[in-house]
Amino acid sequence: MDLGSVPGGTDIILLLAGAFLAGIVTGLTGFGTALTAMALWLYAITPVLAAPLVAFCSLASHFFTVRRIWPDMDFRAAAPFVLGGLAGIPGGVWLLTRLSPDNFKLAVGAVLIIYPVFMLATRKPPSVGLATRPAELVIGVVSGICGGFAGLSGPILVIWSQLCQWSKQRARSVLQLINMMILMIAIVAYAIRGLVSTELLTLVALCVPATLCGSWIGLRLYERIDQESFKRVVLALLIASGLGLMLPRLL
């Protein structure tokens, strides 16, 4: 679908499916909207539309589920990541407007493969010990760049939380708070760059309800079933999605 065109039947199916599945993953884990949705959305819309659409849908999911983990919110722990993320977002938005669609899809595909493989292969991640504030600021900057580039603020933070051996409750609450802050600023940055168009808002109106439906299911799963088992299935699906994005452009 070209920028400025109206989505067709197949495109709408891809958009709704991506939004719904992303909602389930985000409702379950507190992250993963971009990793899940991009695998389908990049077949239907351009990266310049997909990245801000991820930000809108992810933020909607976070607001929907935040009531569940609000008691665990740690604003002090999240502060250096948020500050670093704010510094990194403009660079990510700048990069978004200069990468070709094929390069963008290769980059997203690489993330979809490298990140899940790391998570699946690392049963007991090495510890970084007591993390320093400067290190957390750097991680925040990288997260902000990824967030501005493709709404991918979560993966680097998730890997960092594993390296720091955070508890499940702290990881979920801090990561969700950081993602919410970064995504809100990213949306402002997209608007300043002129990327919040009528077409984008139409896609937001189409996809957000599907994301919220998925988020409701994901939140129920988070409360009732083994989260780790489900996450491993999702990670395996993300690897397959990444391969689907990369292989056609490498062969």
What key attributes describe this structure?
80% helix, 10 helices, mainly alpha, single chain, 251 residues
What topology emerges from the helices and strands here?
Blueprint lengths: L8 H21 L3 H9 L5 H23 L5 H22 L4 H21 L11 H18 L3 H10 L4 H25 L5 H27 L2 H24 L1
Helix pairs in contact: 1-2, 1-3, 1-9, 2-3, 2-5, 2-10, 3-6, 3-8, 3-9, 4-6, 4-8, 5-10, 6-7, 6-8
Strand content: under 5%
Structural class: mainly alpha
Largest sheet: none
Average pLDDT number: 82
Molecular shape: globular
One letter per element, helices H and strands E, the order comes to HHHHHHHHHH
How far from one another are the termini?
23 Å
Number of helical segments with 4 or more residues: 10
Runs with pLDDT <50, length 5+?
none
Classify the helix fraction into a percent range. Answer: over 70%
Give a count of the beta strands, DSSP E runs of length 2 or more. Answer: 0
| Cα-atom radius of gyration | 17 Å
How many separate structural domains? Answer: 1
Structure write-up:
- The protein is 80% helix and 0% strand.
- It is mainly α and 251 residues long.
- It has one domain.
- It is globular and about 50 Å long.
Short précis:
80% of the residues lie in helices and 0% in strands.
